[in-house]
Amino acid sequence: MKNKYIKWLLFLIGFILLAFVVVLYSLWVGEFDISLLSIPDILINKQDSVEYTVITQIRLPRILLGLAVGGALSLAGVLLQGIYRNPLVEPYTLGISGGAALGVSIVIVFGLQQIIGLFMLPLAGFIGAMVTIILVYVLSVKKGRLKMQSMLLIGVMISFISSSGMMFLMAISSSENIHSIIFWIMGSLDEPNMTLIYTTSIISALGLLVSYMFVQPLNALRLGEEKARHLGINTEWAIRLLFIIASLLTGVCVAVAGVIGFVGLVIPHLVRLLVGNDYRIFLIASFVVGGSFIVLSDAIARTVIAPNELPVGVITGIIGGTLFIVVLAKNSFKR
Amino acid sequence: MDKEFFRLNDFSCGYGHKFKIEGISFSIHKGQFAGIIGPNGSGKTTLFKGITHELKRLAGDITLNDKNVFSLAYKEKAQNIAIVTQKIEVEDILVCDYVLLGRIPYQSRFTFFESKEDYRLAEKYMKLTDVWRFKDKLMSELSGGEQQLAGIARALTQEPQLLLLDEPTAHLDITHQVQVLNLIQRLNKQLGLTVLMIIHDLNLAGEYCNYLVMMNNGKVHFKGEPHDVLTFNNIEDVYNTVVVTRTNPISGKPVVFLVSEQVLESK
Question: From the candidates B79, B104, B123, B138, which should be mutated to test the interface with A, based on the most A CB atoms within 10 A?
Answer without folding.
Answer: B104
